[in-house]
Amino acid sequence: MSRIFYDRLIVLEDFGREVKKKTSSKEEEFEIWELVDNILSHKVMDIVLEKLPLKHHNEFIEKFLEAPFDETLFDYLKEKIEDNIEEVIKQEIGTLAYELLEDIKGSRDE
Amino acid sequence: MPKNPAKTYEDILEDKTGYDYFRNKLKLKDIEAKNSFSKKYPHIEKFMKKKGISLEKIREHSAKILGAGALTGTLLLAPPSGLNTLPKPLELFNNLKNPGKFLTELPQKTLIDLLAQFLPERTRPLSQNEEKVLEQMFEEVMGIKTRTNLEGEHLNTTYGLIGAEQHLKRYPGDGVENHGEGSVLKEGIAPGLGAWGYFAASKEKLTPSLEETEKWYAVVQTLYLEDWNSRQPYLRNWYKYRKVLIVNTNNGNAVVASVADSGPAMWTGKNFGGSPEVMEYLGGSRYKKGPVLVFFVDDPENKVSLGPVDYNKINLPLVSLEKG
Question: Is the pLDDT of residue B281 over 90?
Fold first, then answer.
């Protein structure tokens, strides 16, 4: 099923449309998808770990690796983090989505 | 002045043309994200390395765990928090078999009511048990035999969000103007080809059946299947033009479509795609995204037609249009 617990917070629809316009084959499209997926996974984990007190890092990563798809990981994070972590992720990813959109729109068509 | 060796990537970025430029820019962003992560969280890197997992492979890792769970029947998906407790499938289905309650209603109304009771508020992969009940519901209410697990194959999810797709080029030189008329032309035609390439080698070789295939096409996330890469070319052939039943869970509108493209990316927030015709039938000309169920159609003799399922006109034993 290939799900990650934070998937529902990531919605890069406009960027996805631009990727379709910019790519001429499925291979090209999939390559972009993978790169974006990698960037997102590092970015989201960075946001989470930055907010999560250091003493809980290992415990969280252990839980995450056991069930990366499990949305109840947010329950764990909500207990340990004061900020609304879901909102923080949405906002930060929103900024990244804007940057990506600017980048792809800034690249001229051949 | 000699170039700074650490900035040779600038050469790559000088050529600001389309795909290559953007891909290189993304690659740099990817490297930067990895480097920054390693620098900030060396303890996490070390921990993950010890477990033999990296963040780049986390989706694959997740799919493996879920796949193993599905094989052994282990319940790995804890119901996400904030969801209502689901009614017991058997109890719900028994309601369907109570003609007194449903004979007075149109089949579509019956289905909408049942789905509203049965499905979780937010889309998510369903359990085997939940899927079985829905298979029975569709067969009883619509007269279409569906399977979520057909010949051992299962989609990465069966309950998710569908998004509007463009028309696909059916043969070299095909243009949007050849794809009908009216609002279905608004979405335009995709610049690239679908995952299975052209439908026909030329306009002359495009049969009415292939025309229907493109008209009523669906997009599913084949590339996120755990074994997609390891079971080629079998899976590619198996999924090509595979019939699926798509049901809009908000209004009960249903379409039989054929799988003709792969996608969308997980980060678009969607799980399936539909051709302009599919989307228009499911939700009207302004429908761009919404929750749907997508099940394989069990049709070994190829008797089920592609296109809308107008099940209010059919007269099935359990849900008759005639009042008792």
Answer: yes
